[in-house]
DNA sequence: AAGGAGGGTTTTTTT
DNA sequence: AACCCTCCTT
């Protein structure tokens, strides 16, 4: 292990300049593979060595994975001799930390829950139903996108009507108010609220801001190009007393525009901090010259970028390959076949391979093939875990238990598994409760007295509330035993038999039950590594980081496996051998961006391709399928426009569609899987 | 109130 | 192909 002094000697001059500039604002414009993260970790070490207390340095990473990695690298660099831990966090986790302490100042309950995408969608759905907008004209997804745009621009519900450009915007502004008041009544915040309310807190409560300002002397931000307006304002407020702020970013890698990040923020930095020192990192140590050449050639097609000249420091031993297949099955078979050969005969460790794709639906076939080939792989991305109905149900139980105000979660599970509380009963109660402005529970008995609901339903509801109360008490009394309590809960509500009823196929039943086990395990894992566990804290962590257990332990376990992930999740990572699949118009660039018909949206897709390409250290293979199943039908695809930009001499193979039809025939007569 | 059949809809990316 | 919603039967 190297000492920090030795480490400094390993840096090139601009890196060293960034690392040793310990005061004032710095903007590091860093290309792909130029050691961005290294600058942040080494500077962290430098700051500590210069006598700054570690816990007075805040480093912000973009994802939880990135912050874990930063923590790891810092520990490697400094050893364990630190008197205190530096704070390494994501924006959202930082805001939760602040809000849990200070949110009462804004009149919110400190017991707030964090609603993830799925919950947001169902709140959006009810909000739309309330204002009787036909769902055809606006889907929950559309509404959420608009709300998110407003929130990241700090537009509160009551002012949304001033930011309306058409009828749909207007409906959305009405729905936004409904959506927000539902969240508020539930005692829940969505992801954007975490940032928005923290900002509101800083504006309205100077004392709270001051408390936070006094915690840190230095702030560093990674992946600055993906920072949105609110995030910038939060940071600006935090560093106001000392202006010791370092940001690192690359405008060519801005891929979160759809979430409010704007390339202009990285330019605005010098506007907000005129005295900022600007450092450029242009020496790429990651990719071979050929890979870098392809990446550069592609990204040249984007207008208005920070022109920079990335210098490759590595000679290629092989060319960038482009492979074409008749259909997506051949694509998966061939690529997995090749990986298998390289791994089993060539002795290339599994960890050196990464498969990158644009959408979450693409990996399915690859997974099947990898399993058939008995290759170890990990699918990175939290989505799949949360999309399971069982997990969502259990989380809803925990939320309803931990926060009696959370009627939204309660309604999700009030009759899951079915316990004799039907839809009409719930509707009638809800109507009455809303009319009287009282909690659901308080109107149950009266409603039964008035004959609105049956005595039978009344009894079922009351015993349901008793169940919740019982587990509320248990979890509070003995939080260390949380996993056991959750298991008892699953038994008591007969969730397993619900699964049996819903899924007839035995392998499905097994898989679904396994999810329950996994959930209990993740609770146990949380309890084991936390000194004073609480249900609320578990729910926070789960909302922010995905299921516990995808963290350190799993990282190590998954280390020696082939990595499958979306390009978005691959940001900041690197792999010796990268396969970038599905280079088709409609997929990359995605159809939605093509439909948007703006150069901006295509430019972002191009940057996405750029990010994907620059993940590769030594070998890069890009591929496409000439036909693909869509909505249950096989259709010919169009080669991605980016292929023509990347390779001067690219011409699509004209025979592949014909070949795909022959494959299709063989599938039908059963000679092919 | 529960469960099943049938019909319509859906697909970006993530904290 | 997977999911949700609605309607129908029990």
How does this model look, in words?
- The longest helix has 24 residues, at 506-529.
- With 673 residues, the protein is α/β, with parallel strands linked by helices.
- It contains 31 helices and 20 strands.
- The mean pLDDT is 86.
- It is globular, with a radius of gyration of 27 Å.
- The structure holds a DNA duplex (15 and 10 nucleotides).
Could you give the order of strands across the largest sheet? Answer: 3-2-6-7-1-8
Number of helical segments with 4 or more residues: 31
Low-confidence stretches: none
Report the principal-axis shape: globular
Total number of beta strands: 20
Average the pLDDT over all residues and give the rounded result: 86
Compose a concise summary of this entry.
With 673 residues, this protein is of the alpha/beta class. 54% of the residues lie in helices and 12% in strands. Strands 3-2-6-7-1-8 form a six-stranded parallel beta sheet, with helices on both faces. Strands 11-17-15-12-14-13 form a six-stranded parallel beta sheet. A two-stranded parallel sheet has the order 4-5.
